[in-house]
Amino acid sequence: MTVWVDNDPPEDKAVGAYLGKLLTWLGYRATVRDIPEPQYKAVIVNAHAKVQVGQAATWGADYPTPSDFFLPDLTCQSFYANPADTNNITGFCDPQADKLASRAQAAQLTDPAAARRLWAQVDRIVTDKAPWAPIFNASTTVFVSARVRNYQASPFYGPLLDQIWIK
Description:
Blueprint: E1 2-6, H1 10-25, E2 31-35, H2 37-45, E3 53-54, H3 66-70, H4 76-80, H5 95-107, H6 112-129, E4 148-149, E5 153-154, E6 158-159, E7 165-166
Parallel strand pairs: 1-2, 1-3
Antiparallel strand pairs: 4-7, 5-6
Helix pairs in contact: 5-6
């Protein structure tokens, strides 16, 4: 098994090396192949490359809705519309999940409860097929002086400096 790694930024290369060692420890014959960023996506999305393990950068939805997670990255259309420029680097395509996602999105404004049930079904299909396997969740720790007041942080942007004041 080859772990394909985009070698820019350098941290990705270190994560790829870790994944290779972890897979070897788990009993797989794993090697790590790091390639320059411009070639990485082309290799990953090429169906003939038969990539089993690849690494993708951290990702988060800009708006926390199920559609923002599934539609751009985990649908047949997101892959086949333009494979060279897709976010769906897994090549994941499940017509049943796509159908349910379309129904869920249509129900979102008129019947939010039904939409939630449909999104849960989509989530189960995608989770069971495991096109992605998250390896970590990034988090930060911030130390502040006892004189700092009104400290607030955004989970995405970190400390909100315009909200902080010093006693």
